[in-house]
Amino acid sequence: MSGVQEFFHMGGYAVYVWSSYAIALVVLVANILVPVFQRRKLLARLARRQRRERRQP
Amino acid sequence: MSTASLNRAFALLLWRDLVLALRRRTELLNPLLFFVLVTTLFPLGIGADPALLSAIAPGIIWVAALLAAMLSLDSVFRSDFEDGSLEQFLISAQPLSVLVLAKVVAHWLITGLPLLIVAPLLGLLLHLSGASIGALLLTLLLGTPVLSLIGAIGVALTVGLRRGGVILSLLVLPLYIPVLIFAADAVASSGAGLPITAHLSLLAALLVLALSLSPLATAAALKISLS
Amino acid sequence: MLRFFHQLGSPKHFYRIAGSWIPWLAAVCGLLMLYGLYQGMVVAPTDYQQGDSYRIMFIHVPSAWMSLFIYVVMAAAGAIGLIWHMKLAEVIAISSAPIGASFTFLALVTGSIWGKPMWGTWWVWDARLTSELILLFLYLGVMALYGAIDDKRTAARATAILAIVGVVNIPIIHYSVEWWNTLHQGPTVTKFGAPSIDIRMLIPLLVMAVAFKLFYLLVVLMRARVEVLERERNARWVRELVEAP
Hints:
The complex is a heterotrimer.
Chain A: H1 3-9, H2 14-55
Chain B: H1 3-23, H2 25-46, H3 50-73, H4 78-82, H5 85-91, H6 96-125, H7 130-158, H8 164-191, H9 197-225
Helix pairs in contact in B: 1-6, 2-3, 2-6, 3-6, 3-7, 3-8, 6-7, 6-9, 7-8, 7-9, 8-9
Chain C: H1 2-9, H2 11-43, H3 57-84, H4 87-119, H5 127-148, H6 152-185, H7 199-231, H8 236-243
Helix pairs in contact in C: 2-7, 3-4, 3-6, 3-7, 4-5, 4-6, 4-7, 5-6
């Protein structure tokens, strides 16, 4: 087996090791994305509210 | 403010709660009935083999006691919250933690102590030995006050919520785990003829810790919930 | 220096300062993680007992450390918020809960996956895994309580009390679970236990631990910024910020 193949093979534990790392990646990325989207949504909501207030003073 | 007036406030509140509870006797019986019912479900669910039942009886009885204690928790502050007396406690001259302790003691006398009366009966139903039933009573005597004290914190945090029941169980049950472990293991050990003084001392330590810290936390939680 | 902390206490400056830190934190954290992974997956040798399956350790162990660390930080921040009425501490405390819960979840899942080849089963009532499960319940309780109370300031203060009660209980729970485990389980049948660890395994472990700490700092600042915006939505600086993003 070549070095790369061997690396992904993980000595026969590929399923366990890579699934762990995949789940970790998903959890970490989700942690980053949630506040990003929350902030965007909040800013949009506040902008809408301020436009509404300006139209009807 | 003297110690005498503090003692008097404590005794008065305790007396008031006991009288109020005795006027609503059916509510008193409900947790007891629940305790017995849940325990009788287990033999029906897993079969009536005496050896099996006596092996898992400590766990079953204690889990049922845990659930019964949790279900009755709601009544600690509920009626006082609804009729506004809770707010009177908050602005009273006496320290809130002492008043809270009186209420928790009353609640334990009403809902915790009766569990001890029916527990021997359940022990017989599940084929516990005499020594185990004695251990069961001792652990219930030391453990159920801890359940009431810890539970009071959870109730104080959720008292203003309309659907606090489910959340209350989520908050309180994980905190009950140490009591469950030590108590159920004490009953099982006594069944095997092992000494249980270590278990009992640990439960007593938990009780002292809960007695000293829980009223403070409960009082702080009430102040926040009612602000 | 004092002035810096004073400024950090005001929501407006916190929002600005945290915003300027976030890209740097993200860069350093990402680089550290890549370096740690390279060291852990490529450089570190195969374990003679566990083969390559031990490489799960590089995420499992830091996650487990973080799960406890974040709970303590959350309780401490909650206590600071309660005692000194510091709004920012409240925000930090409540922003920490979901991150801590996700690290606890990660530690549980990776522990379970690691256990499969080691123990031959997905779940063992091992003392550490069981404690971690209870810790997850404690986090979920905190988050449920926060979600259930409508007024967010009251909610933050109530959850701070719960977090403090939890932190007092964690050692008791841990000790009782360990006691229970030794009685019921007998000595746990694990193949771990080689206490001396190869330096080439230790380095990636520590690098990953630092990277996870930075990750927590990064996400908690991001979450806290959103929370601050939400709470200060009627303040002038937020209105100006919304006008000119």
